[in-house]
């Protein structure tokens, strides 16, 4: 076992959090241990505690890192001059990009957040609920303006987010199409289904 090697623009904690996301995705938060994480990184388990207190701290960093990134992006979109349908498409593309480029962190956040300890779990749940409400309100605005079909906005959000979550199977595929083609196919199907004729 050696020292923790990090890239120039990366802290030791960043490296541990990224490795933790990969481990939690593979084993699930409950089954993963700090010893597993130390082995994956290539250091002694005791050395790991010099940089991080617990696997709960790693999960907090993953979940709130992802949540903050998504909320910051949503705020930019909400205040832009784009039409509601353009805003929905931009948000959908953002979700797709995140699931393609940082899928381990996004997937762990989506599936393991219920393992957060209080008060973090309640805080995260509130942020998650509010994010979906804000996303839904953009669709509702598009319906009022006649750009989007008269549909139930929360159901539309649920369908879109589940479709994006399904990108995990694309990562596992041995015969996958290019990421750009995947994105365009998803946008064609999901945004096309919303567009009012």
Describe it for me?
Helices cover 71% and strands 0% of the residues. The protein has ten helices and no strands. The longest helix is centred in the C-terminal third of the chain and has 25 residues, at 120-144. The termini are far apart. The relative contact order is 0.11.
What's the gist of this structure?
Helix content is 71%, strand content 0%. By secondary structure, the chain is mostly helical.
What's the count of strands?
0
N-end to C-end Cα span:
62 Å
- Relative helix content: over 70%
Low-confidence stretches: none
Oligomer: single chain
Largest sheet: none
As a percent range, the share of strand residues is under 5%
Shape: elongated
Q: Tell me the structural class.
A: mainly alpha
Continuous helix count: 10
**Rg from alpha-carbon coordinates:** 19 Å
- What is the string of SSEs from the N terminus onward? HHHHHHHHHH
What do the pLDDT scores average to? Answer: 93
Explain the layout of strands and helices.
Layout: H1 12-27, H2 34-41, H3 45-48, H4 55-78, H5 84-101, H6 103-112, H7 120-144, H8 153-165, H9 167-172, H10 179-194
Which key terms come to mind for this protein?
197 residues; single chain; mainly alpha; elongated
